[in-house]
Structures are given as structure tokens and as C-alpha cells.
Amino acid sequence: MTTDYQNELVDRCAPRWAWEVIDETLAADALSSAFDPTLRQQIQLALEAMIQACAGETICEECGESVEEIIGCPDGAEICQDCFDAGHH
Predict the structure, then answer these.
(1) Nearest-angstrom CA–CA distance, 59 and 68
(2) Can you state the angle between helices 37-54 and 16-30, rounded to 10 degrees?
(3) How confident is the model at residue 43 (pLDDT cuts 50, 70, 90)?
(4) For 15-38, what is the mean pLDDT?
(5) More confident call, 21 vs 13
(6) For a tag on the chain, would you pick the N or C end, based on fewer CB atoms within 10 A?
(7) What pLDDT score was predicted for residue 51?
(8) Over 80: is that where the pLDDT of 58 sits?
(9) Helices marked H in the chain — which ranges?
(10) Residue 63: which of 75, 40, 36, 81 has the closest Cα?
(11) Are the CB atoms for 50 and 39 separated by under 8 Å?
(12) Environment class of residue 78 by beta-carbon count within 10 Å: exposed (0-12), middle (13-18) or buried (19+)?
């Protein structure tokens, strides 16, 4: 079951070398018979989400689109320019 807490965007960026170390570690672990392939896929998806967040793109809370700029609303929502112009929040 996915919750709003689990979908909350947390921006924590790391230098490229850190991502490379993580990728190398995952690649080595994937060769091990003890490593769960499903877990590796979940980790990879998490890394991709973290990289996307660090790239400056974020998701509009109203329409769900990936956008480069977000507008913070008084109620705490973070939405794209199109949703803001349409009067959302």
C-alpha cells in the first residue's frame, strides 16, 4: 500500500561519484546468488527517482506532470505554472 508519505518528494542530492559507487555496488551484488533481483529493481527505481529529483525536475502535485519549475502555494501545495494559471490551490 502506497501512502502520501511514501510519495513525498525529498530532495537530497549527491555528487556523481556517489551515484557511481552505488551503481558499482549494486552491479557486483547482482552477480551474487544471495542478492534478491526484486530488491535490486526497487533500489534502481529509487536511485532513478533520486537522480530525477537532483536534476531539478519535480512533479506537480495537481496534474502529476514532471516540470522544471514549481510554484509554492499558501496552502503548502507545489504546482506547475499551468495549474497555477488555471486557478488550482
Answers:
(1) 8
(2) 170
(3) confident
(4) 74
(5) 21
(6) N
(7) 72
(8) no
(9) 4-7, 16-30, 37-54, 81-85
(10) 81
(11) no
(12) middle
Grid coordinates belonging to 71:
510554484
Do 48 and 7 fall within a single domain? yes
Cβ count within 10 A of residue 17: 8
Total of domains in the chain:
2
- Same domain, yes or no: 49 and 65: no
Q: What are phi and psi of 58, to 5 degrees?
A: -145, 170
* Burial of residue 83 (number of CB atoms within 10 Å: 0-12, 13-18, 19+): buried
What pLDDT is recorded for position 12? 60
Residue type (1 letter), 38: T
Q: Are residues 61 and 50 in the same domain?
A: no
pLDDT at 4 over 90: no
Q: Is 78 helix (H, G, I), strand (E, B) or coil?
A: strand
Range of the domain at 76: 57-89
